[in-house]
Amino acid sequence: MDQILNKVGSYWLGQKANKEINSVGDDINVCSFLLTLSRLLTSSSNFQLNF
To answer: Rounded CA gap, 27 and 8, in Å?
Structure first.
């Protein structure tokens, strides 16, 4: 019985850890996107049109 509970617990922890790792990856992607967007907006605010 202990072996079954250990396997179930290991599976559950593995799934939970996998979700957390994916969540961290998503957060990093969002931060990277926002940083890139911020850089684009900052560089475009220095852009001037001369007519």
So the answer is: 29
Q: Coil, strand, or helix at residue 51? A: coil
CA dihedral 21, 26, 31, 34 (to 10 degrees): 180
Cα of 43 vs its chain's centroid, Å: 25
d(CA 32, CA 30): 5
Instruction: Please state the length of the chain.
Output: 51
pLDDT tens digits for 20-44?
A: 888 988 999 889 988 888 888 777 6
